[in-house]
Write a structure and sequence with these properties.
By secondary structure, this protein is mostly beta strands. It has helices spanning 15-18, 21-24, 118-121; strands at residues 27-32, 35-41, 50-55, 58-65, 84-91, 101-105, 108-114. It is elongated and about 80 Å long.
Length: 128
């Protein structure tokens, strides 16, 4: 018989060791129709709190939530809601950055990154 409750007081100390930024923003990445598709779980954030940037072949997704500062003082027993910023970065190489599309609904961010058309970037060099 176990006399100590399963969730004892000190158990919560170890909860933070398993929590990482990767666990907060889980992503699925796949390739289809000459484009990369990224689906990222970003629950609890609003559209204005999310920023997507493509620079030097890297696509960066960043979300930042500022802590609510209210005059009302609360005596928290446990506080698990996350405030701060999370970020993921993916190497996508040469892509058509002008035509990257993104949509955000129900805590899921969907980003479509078209690949650079190889025929447009192909250059034939004349031999003299």
């Amino acid at each position: 018989m176990n006399m100590v409750p399963r969730k004892f007081y000190l158990d919560s100390i170890f909860d933070d060791f398993a929590k990482t930024e990767v666990n907060i923003m889980k992503c699925d990445i796949y390739e289809k129709d000459n484009a990369y598709h990224i689906e990222a779980d970003i629950p609890g954030y609003q559209k204005p709190e999310i920023q997507i940037e493509c620079n030097n072949g890297y696509l960066t997704i960043k979300a930042e939530k500022k802590e609510e500062s209210k005059e009302e003082e609360k005596n928290y027993i446990k506080r698990e809601r996350f405030y701060g910023s999370i970020q993921r970065e993916f190497y996508v190489g040469e892509v058509d950055s002008d035509n990257i599309k993104a949509e955000f609904a129900d805590g899921i961010l969907k980003v479509t990154v078209p690949k650079e058309d190889k025929e447009k970037s192909k250059k034939i060099i004349e031999i003299n």
